[in-house]
Each structure stands twice: as structure tokens, then as C-alpha cells.
Hints:
The chain is of the alpha+beta class. The protein contains 20 helices and 20 strands. A hairpin with a 2-residue loop joins strand 1 and strand 2. Helix 5 packs across helix 10. The longest helix is centred in the middle third of the chain and has 34 residues. It is elongated and about 105 Å long. The N terminus is likely disordered.
Amino acid sequence: xxxxxxxxxxxxxxxxxxxxxxxxxxxxxxxxxxxxxxxxxxxxxxxxxxxxxxxxxxxxxxxxxxxxxxxxxxxxxxxxxxxxxxxxxxxxxxxxxxxxxxxxxxxxxxxxxxxxxxxxxxxxxxxxxxxxxxxxxxxxxxxxxxxxxxxxxxxxxxxxxxxxxxxxxxxxxxxxxxxxxxxxxxxxxxxxxxxxxxxxxxxxxxxxxxxxxxxxxxxxxxxxxxxxxxxxxxxxxxxxxxxxxxxxxxxxxxxxxxxxxxxxxxxxxxxxxxxxxxxxxxxxxxxxxxxxxxxxxxxxxxxxxxxxxxxxxxxxxxxxxxxxxxxxxxxxxxxxxxxxxxxxxxxxxxxxxxxxxxxxxxxxxxxxxxxxxxxxxxxxxxxxxxxxxxxxxxxxxxxxxxxxxxxxxxxxxxxxxxxxxxxxxxxxxxxxxxxxxxxxxxxxxxxxxxxxxxxxxxxxxxxxxxxxxxxxxxxxxxxxxxxxxxxxxxxxxxxxxxxxxxxxxxxxxxxxxxxxxxxxxxxxxxxxxxxxxxxxxxxxxxxxxxxxxxxxxxxxxxxxxxxxxxxxxxxxxxxxxxxxxxxxxxxxxxxxxxxxxxxxxxxxxxxxxxx
Length: 611
């Protein structure tokens, strides 16, 4: 179809074909959002979501979001998560609503891009249905932290590509500005968005090639925009290299190749038929697909069939699929290189975290194929000689393919939602917030959340004080507390006790033990050395009056300032580090504190058996 006819299809008044396109698109978008609402209703916060909440304790200043996060530069994601956490702390409905809004934006942006590429033709619904329902985008949607990355990138990719095409056709500066703005915003949320200009270049060139036009001329028409894209890319790449740091690991071609190979046969082949249909989860890991040789074989045959039909009907369309394949290797190889190892190389592709943008590129490639110049029927070996018979056959086949794919993908999505629901974080947070309300105003020892909820490597963002910082009402979390209260593995506040790994000795002064005053640190000796860990001491003391003392491990560890009150009391104090005893000193002039023996160890629930 020529340029005039394509532009006419976009600007002409409504036709039966256009009405069919809009009605079909509306039905598909509504169905997608309903299905993904179901996924969110079965889900909840997970892993990095909790770290994002902890980061919000630093406020919303630039230092909170202009920073490296696990090798990523994504200030927009950190800022958005901080805003949502501030406005609706620990609220999964609020987080889920943000994902639905972004998903709706991505779906509509992709529809607009397809209409600009294909025109107002119902055939655009075929790649659109793939984009809306493909499980390739599922993990990047259901997980809040990943969704705040990938969905803005998909929106930016669709808008930038659409407006770049419009600029190459019309040379209107408004289209160039919108394309550039979409690119900048997408990069603000995810550094992987730096691929957007390259996708735009390919789409503009392929759009011309599909219709047999001069590719170089098409690219030259958008030259000012290419220069602007290059400038933004150079600046953002410089910021990334300045701020972010790649993850250490065994970066080898063997591991990268293994991950790419598994992506082909275990991910892309099933995705061609709406798979995978089976998922597995071992907490605290994310859901991963279960490879199935039959599904892989059928999917591979479908891919071969798609390529064969494309080559038979419109050979130029094979270029679009080749472009998508090139993107697959160019976009995934660096990620796998940086993050693969002997253990992870086979697991990285299986969660589908790295495929949402590729699904968008495949969708754009499908749109380009739909515009490729068609070989005339008389030049094909076919039983359908009349145009009417060919059109009827094509419409029936397209509808059948779309319906089959949507049904298959819906089964995959529903099964994913069941596995995704098996998440200890949701119940942990429910118990945590309920306990926080009950103990509002009391002082509770600050600690790290259970390692099934967030890794200890995320310290200090895995501390209760940071995760509940924006939540109200809540306890006052300190490094000391009058009671040994702790949060158990289920997120409940329970009574605890200190295990006796080591003990503070009775002390040399009869009736006092160790005398702590302002003049010099006093060593509260153990009966033996204590290795490095996050220890708690049961501090039994008698103070001459109110004031403050400092306490720390004598080997190495953080200094903790502890308030004391007149008379005999017990405090539970966090003393991380290692040593042969504790060094204590009064900060308040004239204060004298007698410290007697007490256990040093781990804070565990009172019901825990043994010493």
C-alpha cells in the first residue's frame, strides 16, 4: 500500500474497517486490563518493592533517586516509588493502581504506534493482541519494581517510534519534540531505554523498505532528530557510567551464550503460542516458567510457519522479523553478560523479566510486516484466485490466530497468577502493619526484616524503621528498648529473649559490678571472644540519675548512645560488631551507672526452645 493510501487511511472519516479496528481494540484493551487486574489482585509487594519503601525514608530529594541501584540508573522509578510510598505507605492497592495506569498508557501508546505504521486497518489488531496478552510482558507488569521500570520504557518506545515516523513523513517539529521528550522520560525510568533511538532508526528504515521506497532518503529526512537522539544518548550514557556500577561476577561468553540459547528455546518458542502454560516458584525467588519440550516444539513450528507465510505473501516482511531478531541479541546479550554466572545463566531467562521491551519490538515488527508489499495472487501458487476469496481467507485466518493466541495466553496468565499468589511478603506486611498500629508509641528494637522478604544485602533499606518510616501509627524504632520485643518470620510482634552466646561478667565492684562514669571508657568483659554479628545485649543497670551512656564492642562496631533513668532497670541494646567485651562511658556529667552481668546474643522469640 502506498504512502498516500496509508496517510489517507489515517486521516479519512470513519469507515467500516476503521470502526472494526476501534471496536476490536477497545474490546482487547478492556479484556487485557481486566485480566491483569486479576493478576494484581492475586499479587502483592515483592523483594525490591520493599527496598524501595526503605529508600523512601531518605525523603524525596535528588539524593534519593539520582543514585546507583543494583547496577541501574533509574531516577524516575525511585522517585515514583518514593512518591507513592509517601502518599500511601505500604498500600498494595495504590501500587497496583499505578501499574494499571501505566499498563493502560502502554497499551494505548502501542495502539497509536500500530495505527501510524499500518493505518486504520483491522489487521493491526493481530500484533496488538500479541502485545496485550503475551506472557513476555507479564513478569514486568505484576512486580511493582519491575513495572515502574519497563512500562514507562514501553510507553516511551511506542511514542518515540510513532512520532519519529511522523517526523520522517512530515518534518513537523512538534513530532520531533514529542519523540525526544518520550525518549528522555523513558530513559529517566530505565537506562535500557537507550535502545529506543536504534529501534526508531530501524523502524523508519524498514517502513520504507516494506513499500519498496528509498531507505536512505527516508532516514535523511529525519536527520535532525537522529542528531538530537545521539546527543541525549551520549549525555545519559555518561551519567550512567558516572553514577551506576555494573555488578561483579563471572562475565563469560559461555554463560551469556547459554542464557541466550535458553531464551530461544524455552522462552520465545512457547511465547509464539501464548505460553508458557506452566510456572514454578521457590520462595523467595520469583515465578519461573517450566520448560516443556512439546510446547517448545509446537512454538518453534509456529515461528517457522510465520516466517514461511511472510516470505510467501510479502518477502520484504522477513526483514522486519530479522530486525526484531537482531534486537533480541543486541538487547539481551549485554544484560546476560553482566548478570549471568555458573548458577544464574540458566535461570535468568526463565522469569521473563528481560523480555517486555522485546515483546514491544516484536509487535512493531508485526505491524511493519502488515505493511509490506504483497506478492500479487497470480504470482503465487494458490487455489484462491479471486481477491474476494483471498480476503475472506485472510480475515478468517487472522481472527482464528488471534483468538487462539489470546485464549492460550489467558491460560498462561491465570496460572502465573496462582503461582504469584504464593508470596510470604503479603502476609508478612499485613501482620507487620497490624502490629505496628497496636504498638504505636512504644519503643521497639530496630531490626532487619525476614530474609525471605528482603535480602540482608539490602541493608539498611531492609530495616523496620525505614520500611515503616512513612507508615502511621507505628512504634518508635531504636537501637535500644525496655522490652525484648521483635518481629518474627510471619511479621508479628512477639515477646523475645536474648540467647546467651556470651555474657557480660559480674564485674569487680561488689554490689555494683562495672562502674561506668564520664572519665574513661570501661570494658564490660565477656568470658570469651565474640565474632562479628548483629548482637543484642541485655543491659542490667543501676543509674544515679537520668542521662546518657555510649556502648560499643571493644573490637570493632558502631557506637550506640543509650538513655538511662534513675534506679535499677533493664535495657536491650543492639551492639553490632566483634570483640572481647563492651566499652561503656557516661556522656552526662556526674552520671554514675552500675552495670551487672547480662547475656549477649541473638534476639529470638520467647517460645524458641533452648538457650
